[in-house]
């Protein structure tokens, strides 16, 4: 096949013969062509091969051959087009008949007039097709016997050969829709007329878009047919040529198979690694992989290890088969306690740190000592020491009845009381629990909410190098729903792991399957350690964004402001607490009568508390700008009282 322009090739193309392989040829004015579509630059150089897989009609440009004017119409244009036989018109019917005779054209001859024709029988509109069937003699003159074919019936008209036009000759047949007129190869160079367009004749210039595959290009290339490039059809001699089309793992995931899919890595994403597994170093250009399919189940758990100086983080598959035992959770603030509270699930904790502050002075609030047992009830609002409403946690102080029975020196506790803790309080609590059951990861997720503290008591049998049992505690932080692909190395088929295309989108190419591959999918590593950077990237996912930040404590006031506020509090009879009875009705906690050793420790704690209160008083005095003259005297007096 001789080189032709891309436009001519497409106009003469039979769509049923696709795909076609083209070679870019050099022309008089062409040494290569660069064009840009949708921001993607593509270069077609001399000798390049492209495989045309689809041709789409974009628009049609109608051109007036007399004036050069153009108009664009869409592929679904409703008008009908009648082909004309030549590019010229005739002034009379006699000229039209003479030209047809010279071309050995036989009757009947189709023609039309660009003006309205009036006869005794009827009026023929402009551009109305007529068929000249014969020439008859009538009273010494010749006239043309013509047929006017309407949608309902036919009319016979007799027109003198001297009838003035201008007239255009057309091919006999019904007017055709736009697409049919363009697809007829015999009409590729014809003039057309259309009653819905204002011109007597027009040229149709379709513009197509070719979708093609190029060697080593990942996406399908879209080439306009108007590109000034010559091509040669080499389909017959290119049957052995295989066009390598790269794929992203995300595209493999979206395509959904077929699996297993043997591939080869062409490119790896830049940036530091996100996993720390032994297979990470093997993901290099040229490495052959086997993609086995979609991992199941589709959820993962983000896990942080506890008890080590350097924190480590893991992503654990939902298919993990190790056995876990719940551990008491640790909470650093009252806000953490509220986040862990679940409807229908009691939450009991023990304070592991003394806790008191300015909020203790308000009714209903109290300090906490090491060993205090609480049951978290609900959230609420209360009036703080400075008069503003603050969010609080309503808790029930629990008695140590079991210990009182064991220690005869303990006095009987009269009852339990409710206390209030501001959500901003920083303390330390440990959950009370006596659950010795062994759970699978799936059962644990079904019965308990996250975060959750666990200890792996039995490692997964199919994963001998399971690192999780070596840690004294694990924190299950969040459930992540993300599709993974199961992948194995061609050089080491037993090393099977899971890759998330969202964060590790390799560029691969399909290859021929290698003989000797094991049947089925080998055991998959269900625990993968992640880097710190990737861990914090995961913490920014939407599932973590729903967690509200902890509340801020109220701004502290100077000594003068505190005195004014304390005066207001004394005049108030009770604090108004939402969802609670009046704070004045809450009983004050009673001190227990302990043995001598307990009393000694109690005195020790009291001394520490006294020192703490004294230092806090000193701090508030130094911050009061209104008592500068007496600061040093008050501080000295305070130290004397302490000593």
Automatic annotation (TrEMBL):
Region entry Disordered, spans: 542-629
Compositional bias (Polar residues): 594-609
Top-level division of the source organism's lineage: Eukaryota
Cellular component GO terms held in the UniProt record: cytoplasm; nucleus
Species per Swiss-Prot/TrEMBL record: Neomonachus schauinslandi
Domain CABIT: 18-237, 273-514
Family: Belongs to the themis family.
This protein's name: Protein THEMIS2 isoform X1
Sequence ranges of Low complexity compositional bias: 562-576
GO process annotations (BP): T cell receptor signaling pathway
Pfam hit, one: CABIT
